[in-house]
Design goal:
Strand order of the largest sheet: 3-2-1-4-5-6-11
Order of helices and strands: EHEEHEHHEHEEHEEEHEEHEHH
Oligomer: single chain
Number of strands: 13
Structural class: alpha/beta
Strand content: 15-25%
Shape: globular
Largest sheet: 7 strands, parallel
Bound molecules: nicotinamide-adenine-dinucleotide
């Protein structure tokens, strides 16, 4: 049994991680600004608090945990990260969280610490061709992320690596590529593409129309949550520090993602591509050569399998909220 702290335990990945760690029999403390929205956390302790506050971090990181998973970040989907409106807050908040946690974890001698970076650190100039993006780990430099979210992640990668170098901290760093699944944000503006598509399709009437941002030709890959957690576990059990990509190599255009969700839902809808101010790079895909080689890991199932589970869950949420919305209006 390991003694583990999950920062960002009230979020999507953190919530799933806590459940997995508890199933495996570990002692877990969770911390977040909020509790999980969709199910109760099985954490042994769950502290509601703001990790931008060093005092709170000192109270939460009060012992030499076997492992810390640092997943807390001010984040959301494209509508939150790429408009520019939230840049100051998201940089300040996420950098403060990381500075506070790494500093205190070092002081108390935490045995191993995981940091969740992002595919958003990769340079914009390598992601202009939707059919041929380059996201191999070493291509991160010369750096030119297309968002302040990406710049903060790159800074914090370097922060964790500097603590490893100067103080011998045992760190692991992964660059997640679009992780999705049930119990993720599905409405309200912070949801990401798979959840947004599932919601739009679930809400649409047969023969209707759904909106897809941009021309829909932009490409991405999406990784189901269970696959992501397996890869994180392999990284933690390995002696490889990273940074390493954790993602899927099954690249798909956003219009085709919408069509796949329609097929899963059994609905025929038309797509309306709507212009938005900025939706991110033209193409992005995980490059899994390093993780295959170092951790012998690759996703086990195609996108359609995870997307089906996610659609079923979001469809239930949509059906459950419908009567409430009808009453209000
Ligand atoms: P999420 O938004 O669901 O979870 C992040 C959690 O951090 C939230 O519950 C939030 O309340 C918490 N948090 C934010 N500010 C805080 C603060 N000041 N104090 C305490 N808690 C705070 O996001 P997620 O999808 O679960 O992502 C987890 C991590 O993985 C994040 O660091 C994210 O940047 C990274 N990541 C995720 C993806 C993805 O596709 N989900 C991709 C790349 C990187």
């Amino acid at each position: 049994m390991r003694k583990i702290l999950v920062c960002g335990a009230g979020g999507f990945i953190g919530g799933h991680l806590v459940k997995k760690l508890k199933r495996e029999g570990h002692w877990v403390r969770g911390v977040d600004l909020k509790s999980n929205e969709f199910s109760a956390s099985p954490a042994d302790e769950f502290i509601i608090g703001d990790l931008t506050n060093q005092q709170l971090v000192n109270e939460v990181v009060d012992t030499n945990f076997d492992e810390i998973y640092q997943l807390a970040a001010d984040m959301g989907g494209a509508g939150y990260l790429f408009t520019g409106e939230n840049d100051a807050n998201l940089m300040h908040n996420s950098a403060s969280i990381n500075l506070n946690i790494v500093n205190q974890a070092n002081k108390v001698g935490v045995k191993k610490i995981f940091y969740s970076s992002s595919a958003c650190i990769y340079p914009a100039y390598n992601q202009e061709d939707p059919n041929n993006p380059k996201c191999s780990e070493e291509s991160a430099y010369p750096a030119l992320p297309d968002s302040e979210y990406g710049w903060e992640k790159l800074f914090s990668e370097r922060l964790f690596l500097a603590f490893a170098r100067n103080y011998g901290m045992n760190v692991r760093i992964a660059r997640f590529h679009n992780v999705f699944g049930p119990e993720g944000t599905w409405c309200g503006g912070k949801e990401k593409a798979p959840a947004a598509m599932c919601r739009k399709v679930a809400e649409a009437k047969e023969g209707g129309e759904i909106e897809v941002w941009g021309d829909g030709k932009q490409t991405r890959s999406f990784l189901y949550i269970d696959e992501c957690l397996e890869a994180v576990d392999r990284l933690m059990r390995s002696d490889f520090t990273g940074p390493i990509n954790i993602g899927s190599e099954e690249m798909i255009s956003l219009n085709n993602l919408a069509k796949l969700v329609m097929q899963i839902a059994g609905k025929k809808l038309s797509i309306k591509n709507v212009p938005v101010s900025y939706i991110g790079v033209r193409g992005r895909n995980s490059d899994n050569r390093l993780i295959r080689q170092r951790l012998n890991w690759a996703p086990t199932a195609p996108l359609q399998i995870g997307l089906t589970k996610t659609f079923e869950w979001i469809n239930k949420q949509v059906q459950a909220t419908r009567p409430v919305l009808a009453k209000v209006s």
